[in-house]
Records
---
Amino acid sequence: MPNVKDFDAYWAEQNKEQIPFKIFGQTEYLPPSLPAAMVLKLVRLEKEYGKKDLPQAEVFELATSIFGEGKVDEWCAKGLTI
């Protein structure tokens, strides 16, 4: 039987601690790694629009996929800009 690499075991061993950051005086948390679907979408968008010309709606959609719509709306109400 060939030597099989076990990605499930590898991922189980990875650091799962969220990454704290401060925004508008509150501590929030990033996931320990970005979802693959989000990274693939970002790559597709950069290929289509370039790094500096990403549509604002797409940027907010990406942020919402990490933090949730409520948090992004809250930050926008406090003055979040692109």
Note: The helical segments are 7-13, 36-49, 56-67, 69-77.
---
Amino acid sequence: VIPLLRACGNLFRGPDNLLLRLVETPNLMLRLWNLLGCGDAAVLKELCWSLANLTGGPMQICAMLVKQNFVPPLAALFNAAATT
């Protein structure tokens, strides 16, 4: 999973038109969402890096992540990391 997330992270640094097409790919965002609950620190680190690259793109992508409820589990991850 980690090599795939690294590849996604690199793709997510691409041009805006590519990013918009990627997030419309069937099941991509669902797969990323499902990884938020995996509990594996290395996977979560790569996932957060990938999502950070993705949110550097068009504002529509950030709005989509908010709409798809990515923010609460990400906030929980950051809060958990701050207490360890």
Note: The chain has a mean pLDDT of 93.
